[in-house]
Amino acid sequence: MYITKRLVGLMMLLVFQVAHTQNRPNIILMMADDLGWGDTGYNGNKIIKTPYLDQMAAEGVQMKRFYAASAVCSPTRASVLTGRNPYRTGVFTANKGILRPEETTLVEILKAEGYATGHFGKWHLGTLTHTERESNRGKPGNLKEFNPPVLHGYDNAFVTEAKVPTYNPMVNTDIKKPNSEKNGTPYGTPYRDIDGKKVTENLDGDDSRVIMDRVLPFVKQAKKEKKPFVAIVWFHTPHKPCVAGPKHLALYKDQPLSMQHYGGCITAMDEQIGRLRNFLNKEGLANNTMLTFCSDNGPENGNPGSSGPFRERKRSMHEGGIRVPGLMVWPAKIKQPIVSNQPFVTSDYLPTILDALGLEVDPKIELDGESMLPILLGKKQTRSEAVTCMLSSKLSAQDAQYKIYAENKIFELYDMQKDSLETRDLALEKPEILEAMKTQYMSWLSSVKSSFEGQEYGVKSVERMKQRWESPLTKTTKKKQVKKKKKSKSEL
């Protein structure tokens, strides 16, 4: 009798756990690479075709002021997974620092809640091998930067360390030199699975399709196991080498060659987003899936990408470098289309998802993001803290109305509600607002430095990486700026 009661109790507990997890939303966080604010149809692009992103914008939440936490790749990605400004975690720029093992990631939190976890596409938060030369940083003996997804809560992965061509991703393709002997040779950045093994099958054609071919089976398996899931889907598109296949090139045949490839690979990615949404509908998962899309920074220099009307591009703390497309659909919660002009940032993803699940993060861990839900659902007018972005000797911090911008320690002030194009510096006209925002920023930056130096979880990673604090409040000479710019172009 005791055994029977015990079995019944266990079965009831299992039923409760299954029901509990089934009612929790599935999470898919998609990110493009170097996609500008103005590179989508819904943001006004008249050339590039993005019908499925436009559909997301029409049906769900369109965040007109959505920001990447940095103006380059790796830092923004760290912010997504931690809810923290990347300067807290030592990911100051691309190919520098790693997602520290001590960080509590969104994926780890959700795995503990019974979620299936997967990462697909670009990783760029550490190397995937320490036994051979690979991509940007992988090389024999480089253990300090060895940092694959398996160390951060993932059950499943299909990832590259960094960039790959956006068509035939495993081979070199130079669209400007079609007769180059280098074309067709191995690119040198393989896809690896969760165990770190190189993937060798189904790698030809459009890279976004190659990625989505792994996402859909992961989702289907999670459904079969009656598990909610979190899928991080980081496309390489439209980062250089920006290449499109014949089908998508034909859509832009009347455009210059660079736009044929640029627009072509973006439309190819857009089609895969449509494929994903159709799959979720078919599997009965769309209603309770929070599906988001953004970019990691503004458009790269030297390509046809557009930052819309905004000032400057990638690597800039002006709007064109950090304001990016921001979308969310979640039919179970967001039942009517929303267009929001409030500022949000990639660090907001983690606290938003925790809010949706009724979870709390360890109070000893400083978060920089805030839940987007109170604002989107009309329960709150504006965010509590400023959106803060930094890179090298450049920074920006902004609330609903004002933005401070600084480069080489020279501060400017803009009214984002009246002057989102940043044409008029108000620093001399409104010194009291500038000083108040600077004071708030300095207090916050002190907290960020303390986190970087190990206040929350010790100095093991600081010592492992041999990193020093890099303050954005430094002055860089013009000569050094040119040198850094050249270096960043070759590294990213």
Keywords:
2 domains, alpha/beta, 16% strand, four-stranded antiparallel β-sheet, 492 residues, disordered N terminus, disordered C terminus, ten-stranded mixed β-sheet, Arylsulfatase, C-terminal domain
Subunit organisation of the chains: single chain
The number of distinct β-strands equals: 14
Helix count from the secondary structure assignment: 14
- Domain count: 2
What do the pLDDT scores average to?
A: 93
Distance between the termini: 66 Å
Q: What's the architecture of the largest domain, going by CATH?
A: 3-Layer(aba) Sandwich
Query: What structural category arises from helix and sheet content?
Result: alpha/beta
Q: What ranges have pLDDT less than 50 throughout 5 or more consecutive residues?
A: 1-21, 479-492
Helix content: 25-40%
What does this molecule look like?
With 492 residues, the protein is an alpha/beta fold. It has two domains: 23-376, Alkaline Phosphatase, subunit A (3-Layer(aba) Sandwich), CATH 3.40.720.10; 387-491, 2-Layer Sandwich (Arylsulfatase, C-terminal domain). 32% of the residues lie in helices and 16% in strands. It has helices at residues 2-22, 51-59, 73-82, 86-89, 106-112, 207-224, 246-249, 257-282, 319-322, 349-357, 373-376, 431-452, 460-465, 478-491; strands at 26-32, 61-67, 116-122, 156-160, 192-193, 229-234, 289-295, 323-324, 326-329, 338-345, 387-391, 394-398, 402-407, 410-415. Strands 1, 2, 3, 4, 5, 6, 7, 8, 9 and 10 form a ten-stranded mixed sheet that branches. It has a four-stranded antiparallel sheet with strand order 11-12-13-14, covered by helices on one side. α6 (207-224) runs parallel beside α8. The model is unreliable at 1-21 and 479-492 (pLDDT under 50).
